[in-house]
Amino acid sequence: MSDEATTSEGGLAAPTRHPLGWKDPKFYDEGDLFTELERVFDICHGCRRCVSLCNSFPTLFDLVDESTTMEVDGVNKDDYFKVVDQCYLCDLCYLTKCPYVPPHEWNVDYPHLMLRAKAFKHEKDGPSFRDKLLTSTDQVGKLASIPVVVEIVNTANELKPTRKLLEATLGIHADAPLPKYSSNTARKRVSKRDLGTVSVNKTERTTGRIGIFLTCYGNRNAPQMVEDLAVILAHNQIDVAITESELCCGMPKLELGDLPAVEKLKNHNIPQLIKLVRRGYDLTAPIPSCVLMYKQELPLMFPDDEDVLAVAKAFFDPFEYLMLRHREQLLDLKFSHSIGSVAYHVPCHQRVQKIGPKTKDILELVPETVVSVIERCSGHDGTYAVKRENYAIAQKICRPVVTRVDEAQADHFISDCPMAGDLIQHGRQEGVATSAFALLRHAYGI
């Protein structure tokens, strides 16, 4: 390393993300992986500014401080995976804290290194039954949303004996909030709803036509949220379409390190999405993690796939899209109801999209609306918070968010991630998390 590299931090250049390179045989080489883990852990140990982000960094620093040398070389390499297991790939360390990300010559990409370690572990040992089940969202959701079955599942998930059994057999914490399922899916709701005739107006950044990737969670667990989104878009003279079919975006499998499964899901979803792009549609999804998957994660996994790159270019966060329309004076500002005060939690996977607080900006277009922004991790991370070994940690991470929501004493509290909203609601043990789409739809009086 140069003398300059050992003393300088960061620079004026924006962080540069390199492709994941997961199909290179070296990616799964154990010796090379552990050498890189030790190198990066040593840099993190000497810096420690990411200690407040998630439990991965405190786990690392505790291992170092409790070792015989109080340096990374004193940590048992088998314990490296204790650090890896606590990373849920939020990317905040890369984009908000770390001064050594590329183009710095130390080339630290902590999330990609953790993903590589997860992939190595998955390839070597395979997933547990619990983890495979939790990340098989399409199979579980399809079964759980069958009429009659859905009522049994939702009721069982509320019963203490059932939850105790799930904890004992699968390691799903008995107190963790689990999503409800609906047989009246978003696909059914949007397909049968008359969204009216719109007069399409194209702008420099938007086509005025948008395809909604429903997402597995939006389709079967939060269909009202997706319907609200479709209604709002149509109300603003945007031509709305939905994909002909969809599977999970792949984020749960990515967080598990099952990269071949991510590729299989990509091979189904990208052809569906590229059809819409070729018909002149932009794209969006109601869940920030799913938007990020298409904007960032898949392009980094498949940098040479032209269809993946075209889909990424066409993808927008819903409120990012509405704000782009507003800048061209194409957003309807005739509101019939007020919203009031809103405590708004910004999910990590939206923050790292680098778009700013667009949900807040749109909601505050409604007269007499004040939005308090909470930019802190909720600790949910898809499947992380429901696992027996992580539940208490997730509650600890979420506690400052709960405190901020309580202190706001707002009329509503929301998160763009409905799962994060559920965990915040669980921590508060009062109130009901709603969605920004529902608030905006109410403001329009639709």
The coarse silhouette is globular
Low-confidence stretches: 1-7
Strand content: 5-15%
Structural class: alpha/beta
H-E string: HHHHHHHHHHHEHHEHHEHHEHEHHEHEHH
* Main sheet record: 4 strands, parallel
Give the count of structural domains. 3
Q: In DSSP terms, counting alpha (H) and pi (I) runs of 4 or more, how many helices?
A: 23
What spatial order of strands do you see in the largest sheet? 2-1-3-4
End-to-end Cα distance, whole Å, is 61 Å
How many extended strands?
A: 7
Please give the radius of gyration in angstroms: 22 Å
Range of helix content: 40-55%
| Mean pLDDT over all positions | 91
Write structural notes for this entry.
The protein has 446 residues and is of the alpha/beta class. The chain folds into three domains: 15-125, no CATH class; 186-324; 335-444, Rossmann fold. It is 51% helix and 6% strand. The chain has 23 helices and seven strands. The protein has helices at 3-7, 30-47, 56-65, 80-84, 92-97, 110-125, 129-135, 137-144, 149-156, 160-170, 186-192, 216-220, 223-235, 251-256, 259-278, 288-301, 306-314, 318-327, 348-351, 358-363, 391-408, 418-428, 436-444, and strands at 209-212, 239-242, 282-284, 315-316, 341-345, 370-374, 412-415. The strands form two sheets. A four-stranded parallel sheet has the order 2-1-3-4, sandwiched between helices. Helix 13 packs across helix 23 (436-444). The chain is globular. Residues 1-7 have low confidence and may be disordered.
